[in-house]
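Researcher: I'd like a candidate sequence for this fold, 162 residues long. If you have to choose between options at a position, lean toward the conservative one.
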């Protein structure tokens, strides 16, 4: 169940606009942030908040590639497979990541840390080959650079001890 604090914040945002449907993406992202992905339960909650049907929410959720309808890892790695990245080694980046993590496209590592997804373009052609991890872009990728990025993310995911 959605915590009252989040529900209240969303209800206030929705009450502040003339057409609540204009906030559907914001609501989906808020629920996804809370649950980790947009589950069927979250779809129903979004529909209730916005006065829409679950089918209407699902249609929108499946349209947007940054809305996840199934569980994903803590870090979603989107490897650019546009022409520019591909010409600059994008496929080898994807192959390297898949081999290093032991997963293929659309899969999540057993520890739940990483999900690997191809994406048609992230808009960083000048830094090709590039990838987007959650909201951070990494470019000029090499196996060595990828290893350092993954190592840092794994370390950041460890529980903090004082």
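Model: Candidate sequence:
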């Amino acid at each position: 169940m959605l915590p009252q604090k989040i529900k209240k914040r969303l209800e206030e945002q929705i009450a502040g606009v003339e057409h609540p449907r204009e906030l559907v993406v914001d609501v989906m992202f808020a629920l996804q942030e809370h649950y980790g992905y947009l589950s069927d339960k979250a779809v129903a909650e979004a529909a209730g908040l916005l006065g829409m049907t679950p089918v209407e929410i699902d249609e929108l959720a499946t349209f947007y590639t940054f809305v996840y309808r199934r569980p994903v890892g803590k870090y979603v790695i989107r490897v650019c497979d546009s022409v520019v990245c591909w010409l600059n080694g994008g496929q080898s980046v994807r192959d390297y990541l898949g081999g290093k993590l032991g997963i293929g496209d659309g899969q999540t590592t057993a520890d739940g840390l990483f999900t690997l997804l191809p994406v048609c373009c992230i808009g960083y052609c000048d830094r090709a080959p590039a990838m987007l991890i959650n909201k951070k872009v990494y470019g000029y990728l090499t196996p060595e650079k990828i290893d350092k990025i993954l190592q840092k993310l794994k370390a950041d995911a460890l529980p903090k001890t004082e």
